[in-house]
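Components:
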Amino acid sequence: MEENDGNFCPIFPASESSVVELDHGSGGLLSRRLLAEWILPRLAGVGAQADHDARSFDLPHGRLALTTDGFVVSPRFFPGGDLGRLAVYGTANDLVMALARPRALSLALILEEGLPLEELGRVLDGVAAAAREVGVEVLTGDTKVVERGAGDGIYVTTAGVGERAPGSPPGPHRIRPGDAILLSGDVARHGLAVLTVREGLGFEGLPESDCAYLGPAVEALVEAGIEVHCLRDTTRGGLAAALHELATAAGLAFEIWQGAVAVHPAVAAACELLGLDPLHVACEGRFLAVVPAPQAERALGALRAVPVSSGAVQVGCVREGDGVTLVTASGGRRPLRPPTGRPLPRIC
Amino acid sequence: MEENDGNFCPIFPASESSVVELDHGSGGLLSRRLLAEWILPRLAGVGAQADHDARSFDLPHGRLALTTDGFVVSPRFFPGGDLGRLAVYGTANDLVMALARPRALSLALILEEGLPLEELGRVLDGVAAAAREVGVEVLTGDTKVVERGAGDGIYVTTAGVGERAPGSPPGPHRIRPGDAILLSGDVARHGLAVLTVREGLGFEGLPESDCAYLGPAVEALVEAGIEVHCLRDTTRGGLAAALHELATAAGLAFEIWQGAVAVHPAVAAACELLGLDPLHVACEGRFLAVVPAPQAERALGALRAVPVSSGAVQVGCVREGDGVTLVTASGGRRPLRPPTGRPLPRIC
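Structure:
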């Protein structure tokens, strides 16, 4: 058994590296320095502590929701957001889509050897800023380091625990024929923002990513007393993926009014040049709400009063049957292509 | 806006690939096939469903614990375990170390393009087997795909929600001078098992990884009425890291009786050849329990009645002061070296 030669006293390694080293993942002193100097200070304002691995928290009751997402977006910084914000908003949004209030987040980092620590810091600043906005604590975390070439800088995986309102959570099983399908804003901003930075494309006038927390919009619906049948954020795979998944899960037909789905003109132009269908491009701050038709106008009023969903419109309705049908301005009907083919990798 | 040319009907891509493709991460049909054909069938027995992103669950009260860990172990399969088992046990163990019963797990996968699907399947089989053993549901998950060279096959991040027993959870703040320090078994098996496979070393008679669920051992302590002051699994950084962290957090001195810490002879011999100190090598199925000295014998009796902690012994005691001191058989005293220097990357 190798032993210490008397040279105890916890000497920190002399190297003052500005990049992640393999030893940052060893569980030893350098791991503790990474945590103490780079991670905890950035997250201290949102509840992070060096502590036991599991953190305790108390809620008034045990009606819970759990969600998780890995975030591998490339590049890590894009117009309107960054990997850290995306991770917190994304997980918080999944909870609010289940009418659950985000109460605790976990944050697991997989860092690649050689990552500039300053970039880690900026991503964590994004985590902290988003957590403050959402009002959620980053209760617990983990950091692993992989060797150069076995990762891509930083991968972030967040899990979120939310506290559900009483009653049955919304979901596709509650969608009924006749329901109104509302969409909270224009589509495809996030995917285009990430893609244009990654590919170095110079589109003019392109709006930023729509990356945002959807909690205020959902609270507005609840406060207006809307009987929310189903909520779904239109992330990976875009509006088309969300519509197809909901229609399939509900066992009903969705009729979507093509002219009602807003696309920013610069986004539409860029999509056309790239051969992308904006209905298939990811958003990170938009969602579908399926509500009883008689409540649609009131729901839209509530949504439009909140900045994040100020562009809310009804985009269609639910029928008996199956599939998702696009209805054109001229009254033409055609099936909405399900998301397939052309992948847009590393978009979230 | 690109549209479907009438050729609707959800045609699955013709390719019957046996490896992960980028399009498996697109959110489209191939993503759904990956989930439906490779992921959900393997996890169906432990609660996984294709569903909304956040899954609801109810607990009788709101006393909770949350933990997360990323798992990047290389290789993914090693004697005594695999990446999937390690992820479930590791997260469940963090919960039971907080006296919390594991109730819900999340599972986030980051897959590298080109990964054989069969390997993904075997890892998920490990997840399912471990979840069944622990008695926890894999409630929710996520799958991302990164391009070849931006990952290393599979990274798994689990988060766990546990239900705490009433009363203050154990922790370093509850450690008192005079307490007994118990260790549940011999050390360094896991690190050696992984290292020897990875480096292709041919040590004879090496035991398997100790990778295991610690719940039964902790339950035994609780059922015996032991007043558990602190629990800590001795994972990354090994026994030395756990002791140093606890002593520092408690603001007390730990005295460790070197002769009481068991090391399997083949592990000790391999460590000697590799220049490793077994006290610094990770376990994945061992833990420290700090208990009042008068209860130590009863606690050891309870632990030894359970297979996973049958080798439990008292390895030391808590004193006023600080630091971790090794006491040798001859009565010599020297500081236990804190974990620093030589990293053992990708061990968990």
